[in-house]
Amino acid sequence: MPWFSYHGGHSGQFCRHAKDDLAAVVERAIDAGFTHYGLSEHCPRYRAQDLFGEEVTQQVDPATLLLDFEAYTREALRLRDHYADRVELIVGFETERLPPESWATRMAEVRASAAFEYIVGSVHDVDGVYVDYSAEQTLALAERLGGVEALQLRYFDALTDLVETLRPEVVGHVDLVRKFDGPNAGFSPKVLARVERTLEAVKACGGVLDVNCGAHRRGLSPVYPLPEILQRARVMEIGVTLGDDSHGADSVGVGLDACMAAIANAGYGEVCYLTRDAGTVTWRRAPIDTVKPLR
Ligand SMILES: [Zn+2]
Ligand SMILES: [Zn+2]
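# zinc ion complex -> structure
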């Protein structure tokens, strides 16, 4: 009975908008019956204007983020060994497409900086402005770019570019750009045609989609991605996996039932999970009715 999540494990120890020490997050994952748990802390950001809200408030600078991230890496690898007989921790990080001019080099450097086993390829910005920070900021950005559709086209083009460049194992919250669009979120045919290109890139690099309950858990929007995208991905035979997007012990695993329902409703019969085999991580497929907590 595999039970897993590969997008999450953010902790207050290394991320200022999360809670708890990483060890507490991992222990909660063990208690919740996870057999595999991916740790994907946010990568560092390199420019003052890319700092998250709490980092600005706490006057953290990019140099400190680099040190935090190095400390995350050491602790995650230590915990992986420490808890090896209780849970299979897979250590990675979540990307940004920042700084706009040099993200590809930066992300490649981060990936090479330690023994990371996978990455969650995520885009959170368009033109250097975060699309998941507040409804007001996203709306203002859309207006500046010529409307919501224009923003969405730019977002999916950016994600396609990131997928083709970094070839992430997990593609994070594919349609994050509609985070603040509420329960009736949807995309125009023109945007869906652009999503199709993103999915083709995912397929070509062998990536797997993160079915993610982060915003759903907070009552903001349906799980990522929307049913029409998941159904299309299923037809294209693109694999899916689970992501709780946990930001502290109390969000570990919370909402994954909605992800499982979305996967089943899209017609998938199997869910992918990353597991270590002779020292390297590989994707396996589990029949959907076997995917559940260990106890
Ligand atoms: Zn976060
Ligand atoms: Zn994210």
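# post-check
The chain is about 40% helix and 15% strand.
Residues 62-82 form the longest helix (21 residues).
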